[in-house]
Amino acid sequence: MNRQFSKYQGLGNDFILIDDRHLQEPSLSPELAVQMCDRNFGIGADGVIFALAGQNGTDYTMRIYNSDGSEPQMCGNGIRCLAQFIARLEGNLVPGRSYNIHTLAGTMKPRLETDGQVTVDMGTPFLEAGEIPTGLGAHGEKVIARPLEVGGRSWLVTCVSMGNPHCITFVTDADEIDLATIGPLFEHHPVFPERTNTEFVEIVRPDYLKMRVWERGAGATLACGTGACATVVAGVLNQKCDRSCTVELPGGCLHIHWHEDGRLYMKGPAKEVFTGVYQYQYK
Fold this sequence. Notes:
Blueprint: E1 2-10, E2 13-20, H1 30-37, E3 47-53, E4 60-66, H2 76-90, E5 101-103, E6 106-112, E7 118-123, E8 146-150, E9 153-161, E10 165-170, H3 179-187, E11 197-205, E12 208-215, E13 219-221, H4 225-237, E14 244-249, E15 252-258, E16 264-268, E17 271-279
Parallel strand pairs: 2-3, 4-5, 10-11, 12-14
Antiparallel strand pairs: 1-2, 1-17, 3-4, 5-6, 6-7, 7-16, 8-9, 9-10, 11-12, 12-13, 14-15, 15-16
């Protein structure tokens, strides 16, 4: 069977985009998404994103399968790519165009900018242990600078949910972190019942952070939009950074602003790489 697709990337965090605007559920299975994401035998991507029909008055719905077949609630880089993808499908790549996108983490609002980038209203972070979820605190407690033993070392971690769980730890040199070794140990630590994304963050200046990320279900990626948002929240809660920051990731920079009203805004690029037709058969 054949399936049309588009390939997009946001700071090197890359996705396969599927036009399912006439459907309520993804047309492809998680197992097929794994095949498509394979970088040797498939298209190659960190995940497959489906543009679905809107729900509850929204314009569209976003669903995503990670490269391991798991389904996250949201993806910050992915929703910027989805906004550009939808605009191309509509033939409406007009600066100022915005969308209300239903996700498993709530309604997100991306807006196309004049410089070709996309700004997303990411909503408000969840800070209580039970909302994240994590066993590092009681149900109504915030988890800020709590010690956690991982890989034979004690780390001070702060936990934030952007609709998906994040564990942030501040380090002296982000480049020295062995992500391939320590990342899975954080992801699968028993204090995170739904696993976790993990950000290792170096404070360069109060308005400039350097971050490396291990994403649950995808591993080491070049960028993570929800992770960048969670990182700024954690930095403010620990009195380490400003509410407006540039966050440098291996794939480039995002600008994050945590407004005084509690909402987070993320601005960054999203670009089409190529389109094609994928020939597949279910194994």
